[in-house]
Automatic annotation (TrEMBL):
One Pfam family cited in the UniProt record for this chain: TetR_N
Keyword DNA-binding: yes
Protein name: TetR/AcrR family transcriptional regulator
Alphabetically ordered keywords of this record: DNA-binding, Transcription, Transcription regulation
Stretches assigned to the HTH tetR-type domain: 17-77
Organism from which the protein derives: Streptomyces aureoversilis
Highest taxon above the source species: Bacteria
DNA-binding residue intervals: 40-59
Amino acid sequence: MSTESPKPAARRTRLTPEREAELYEAVLAILREVGYDALTMDAVAARTHASKATLYRQWKGKPELVAGALRHKKPIKLEEIDTGTLRGDLRAMVCEADDEQMEQDAALMRGLGHAIHANPDLHRALRELLIEPETEALRAMLQRAVERGEVAADNPALDFVAHMMLGAFLSRPLFEDRPADAAYLVRYIDAVILPALGR
């Protein structure tokens, strides 16, 4: 009769935050170089000296990996913002971002525009991993403003704050051939969003 102890089942190990950040940086670098359609898990594995098995173990596939990289790259997480005033919260959304990084991110998102429409899996992953968490955090921010009495609970503009912010971010390059930097977005918040909310 064998006295050897049974081997423990292999555990799924999590990547260290440093290693995860390295993988995300590689994903974004490849995205900028070749675009979404030409990005492959093989290319990410080769660039980062990781196995494809590791990539698929941590992320279901390319859409989830790209969405995770975009969320990781965000300079500030909305759920971490709570300055005590709506104006302070909205300004914090844009003032803590680096203008050069914002311009790079805008270019990256413009490049992903076609891929999002052509790849339902990418669209779903971006909604689940990036858009919905950010939208929920923005809703919580606005709800705090309602509870503080800064905004009327029945103000119809509450439903369109995310649309207005995204519109400012995307439309300035189109109309003015200039990026939507922090100074522009602060002016937009004060001139458009806060008045729409009755502030």
